[in-house]
Structures are given as C-alpha cells and as structure tokens.
User: Fold this.
Amino acid sequence: MLGFRGHFSSKSRRYSTTLGALRRARADFRAAQERDPLGLDDHEPETVLVLADWQYAGHGHTLVSRRSPPPSPVIYSSTAQPPAKRSPRCQMRGSGDHADPTA
Assistant:
C-alpha cells in the first residue's frame, strides 16, 4: 500500500507527514470552503457569528400541543397503530412467548 510494506499509519515521520497534520490541513480547507460563500475573511478569532435564533417553545413531550391541530388519522397506518389500539399480540412481542393470545 502506498509504495511501502506495512500499514499506512505506521509510516516513518521522516519521509512523510503525520496524521495530525493531515487532519489539521483538512479542517482548515473545509473551514475555508464554508467561509467563502458567506464572504467572510480567512481568520476572525474574536468574532462570533450567530446563525440561528433560539426561542422557548414550551416544555414536556406531548403528542398534541395547544398550538397545533390534532394529528390526522392518516399518520397511523395499518402497521403503526396508536398505543391505545394495539393488539395483545403486539404487546407480547419480544417476550419470547409465541402462543396465541386469544386461546
């Protein structure tokens, strides 16, 4: 591989570059690619660029919030039923018992 015997990461530092230097060069290149479309200078160490605005949207995890309409029945397909309508067979999945729950 690469003209020498052995693994690529065990190559001699005398004849090649280190993996850290490659990582650093790759990170610098990617950062320059991100800055160019935005028209930013190469290095702005004391500048903070805010790209998003955060707002408090509420707390907790609920299916229906006060701001949104109730979910449409279309989101529940025949394979994914709401938890209240699941059959006993679906609840037994993973227990290792494959007996018929209706018997």
